Structure formats: C-alpha cells, structure tokens
C-alpha cells in the first residue's frame, strides 16, 4: 500500500504542475432553486405535470436509488446541434446507473437535438428556461424522469482560472457545458473528451443521488463544507474540483470512482 501511495504522490506532483500551467477545472453545484409552496399542491405524476421534477437537488435521491416508488427511468437528453455527447460517455453513465440503482425495468433514453438558443454564456435562469421550453418527460407511474441538457456555450461565471463543466440544479435535471468540455479536452496534456465527459456526467448525477449529505445522509463524516456538499476525499468522484488526484487519474485514462464513504451513503439510502 505504501508503494502505491508514494507512486501516486509522484504522479500527483507532476500532473499538478502540468495542470497548474494549463488550466484549473471546477465542478459546480447550484442549490438555490427550489419549489414554491404553491407548487406542492399539484404533485400528481401523470407524465405531463412538470412540478414533481422542479424540486430541490438531492430530494429525489431515494427515488433514483431504490425501486420502492419507481422501477424504471426515462432519461431525456437534449443537446444543441453539434454538441451531442459521445456514445461512450452515455454508455459509461448507464453502467454507473446499473452499479448503483435498483431499476429492474431499466432505463429508456430519448435523445433530441435543438438549434442553439443563442444566448450563451448561460446563467442558471437561462438553463431553467431552456428546460421549460424543451423538456417533454416528467414522472409517471413507476417511472422517474431524468433530464440532461448539453449546452453550446459556457457558464456565465467562468473566468481565466476556473470553468464550470456541469451543474445539477434540480431534483432530476442537470446541465453539461459541452462546449467547455470540448475546449478543455482538446489540448495537449488534457484528458480525452469521453473521459472528461464521463467524469462530469457521473459527478453531476452523484448530486442527484444526494451526495454529499444533501439528500443521502452521511454514514461517516466526509463532507467538504468549504466547497458545498462535496466529498473531502481528494481521489473521489465527488471531490469539488478536477485537479491534483482527479486530474492524474483522468490523464491516466481512468474515470474517477466514488470512494467508500460515498458508496456507503448511497447504500444506506436504498442503493445497491
Ligand atoms: Zn459538484
Ligand atoms: Zn466520496
């Protein structure tokens, strides 16, 4: 174990330097959108009512993890023309579902291209508006609806040292800033696009599963309080940024994994 650790430390230092010279990448989680009290009056799930899918991030964690209410998922992918996610990363996300979620009736995927909304860089309000115009799948009997949008521009808070790759902004919605992923992966010394895309997809979906301590209670303390509902284990998929250890594993062609703490939280909330 100690050999392994020191080897990692060497890699870590080399790669950290490489990344420091090129770019820093941050994940971002937005938690400010929640339902109004009025909305709670209309919770009926008939496949067309959007309200059950406009709730707080993490609040459907148990619905994703267990089969007690929903035994299948309808996954709707909307992307701007030219920004379609790779088949590899979608398949990797499906494997991630399979490893963690009790969904005996499986996952149905619908993919659809839309023209550019044309108003990037996007605010989260604009991302919400795009969902309002384009999302067609909502919770139905036994079926939990999931929505992902692949944007053609970046997030409005990006700056020269940090960029946002994705955001989980509601209970069943997340956005991937695909234009940023393409830019960040298309340069020397960067992870491949499918690997970076997979890490971001799985990380954002991890927030919909209630990680960390936001929908799935912690079994042991591993919360990185400073960076808002992330894991304090620097090698974990739910660490707050891609730098150091996560950058190293991505550059080695590996997808970062959930650590034992995060896995224990998901199991305790009904997951596999
Ligand atoms: Zn995050
Ligand atoms: Zn973790």
Description:
- This is Membrane metalloprotease.
- The chain has 272 residues and is of the alpha/beta class.
- The chain has a single domain, classed as Collagenase (Catalytic Domain) (3-Layer(aba) Sandwich), CATH 3.40.390.10.
- It is 34% helix and 15% strand.
- It has eight helices and ten strands.
- The strands form three sheets. It has a five-stranded mixed sheet with strand order 3-2-4-7-6, sandwiched between helices. Strands 5-1-10 form a three-stranded mixed sheet. A two-stranded antiparallel ribbon has the order 8-9.
- Helix 1 crosses helix 7.
- It is globular, with a radius of gyration of 18 Å.
- The N terminus is likely disordered.
- Bound molecules: zinc ion (2 copies).
- The site of one zinc ion (ZN) has 9 residues, from helix 8.
């Amino acid at each position: 174990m100690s050999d392994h650790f020191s080897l990692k430390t060497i890699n870590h230092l080399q790669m950290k330097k490489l990344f420091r010279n090129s770019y820093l990448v941050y994940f971002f989680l937005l938690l400010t959108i929640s339902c109004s009290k009025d909305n709670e009056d209309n919770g009926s799930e008939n496949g067309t009512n959007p309200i059950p899918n406009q709730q707080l991030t993490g609040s459907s964690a148990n619905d994703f993890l267990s089969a007690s209410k929903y035994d299948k998922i309808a996954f709707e992918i909307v992307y701007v023309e030219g920004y379609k996610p790779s088949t590899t990363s979608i398949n990797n996300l499906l494997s991630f579902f399979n490893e963690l979620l009790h969904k005996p009736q499986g996952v149905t995927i619908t993919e659809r291209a839309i023209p550019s909304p044309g108003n990037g860089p996007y605010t989260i309000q604009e991302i919400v508006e795009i969902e309002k115009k384009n999302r067609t799948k909502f919770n139905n009997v036994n079926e939990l609806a999931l929505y992902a949008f692949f944007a053609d521009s970046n997030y409005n808070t990006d700056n020269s040292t940090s960029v946002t790759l994705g955001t989980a902004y509601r209970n069943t919605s997340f956005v991937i800033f695909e234009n940023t992923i393409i830019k960040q992966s298309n340069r020397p010394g960067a992870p491949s696009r499918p690997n970076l895309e997979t890490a971001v997809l799985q990380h954002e979906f991890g927030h919909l599963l209630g990680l960390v301590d936001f929908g799935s209670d912690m079994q042991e303390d591993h919360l990185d309080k400073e960076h808002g509902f992330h894991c304090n284990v620097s090698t974990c998929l739910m660490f707050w940024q891609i730098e150091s250890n996560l950058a190293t594993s991505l550059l080695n062609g590996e997808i970062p994994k959930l650590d034992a703490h995060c896995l224990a939280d998901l199991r305790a909330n009904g997951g596999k």
